[in-house]
Amino acid sequence: MTLAALMLSFTLMQANAAGVGGADRFGQCVALIESDAVRAYEEGMAWAGEAQALGGYRCAAMALIAQDRAEEGARRLESLAASLSPDRTALRAELFSQAGNAWLIAREPAQAASALTRAIATVQADPSQLPDLLVDRARAYAMERDWRKAEEDLSRALDIRAADALALRLRATARMHQNSFDLAEADALRATAIEPASVDSLLVLGHVRESRRLGAPVEEQ
Questions:
Q1: Are 95 and 69 in contact (CB under 8 A)?
Q2: Is the dihedral of CA 18, 22, 23, 28 positive or negative?
Q3: What are the Cα distances from residue 103, in Å, to 4, 38, 72, 112, 134?
Q4: Which of 11, 12, 22, 138 is the most exposed place for a label (fewest CB within 10 A)?
Q5: What is residue 221's predicted lDDT score, i.e. its pLDDT?
């Protein structure tokens, strides 16, 4: 699944965050993005203009991302998050998280890490919400080839949610790139045990073993 698809499905599940009376309209606007992102943007902005509705601005930002205008969408999402009162913790974290994922789509890892750090700080008191945010920030660090920071975030995520095959695969890759081949293989093997049919886990395991054979990290294709 692409990052954009993950963002859309996540937001559909969180449609009630748009507020009483606005959830249905928000859900309809988000659903429209997949078939007609331009029209979804127009409808989102029209709704925002009518009622200054956060859901309208949010849908419009998501529609921009679907139109390959990820940077603009990310900036709008960050602005929305920053405009909310601090007590709206869950929604602020969602918006910063979405902005971070949009920056990842835009191949702007430093911006992604910044937005995701703000999301992490927002939900720090609720560890159950941290793993996904830490995994996403680890992706940003990996994009910058900062493997040590990526490994640290993935280890924190796995401390909270140990049976996370994705986090294990990503940490295996981070460790491989630091020449920690035994630890990388252990992570890859755990990932394959959790998801035996996962082609991704098997590929990571293959990369790690080839790296150990060569004595240097291989570049994944």
A1: no
A2: negative
A3: 11, 20, 9, 5, 15
A4: 12
A5: 63
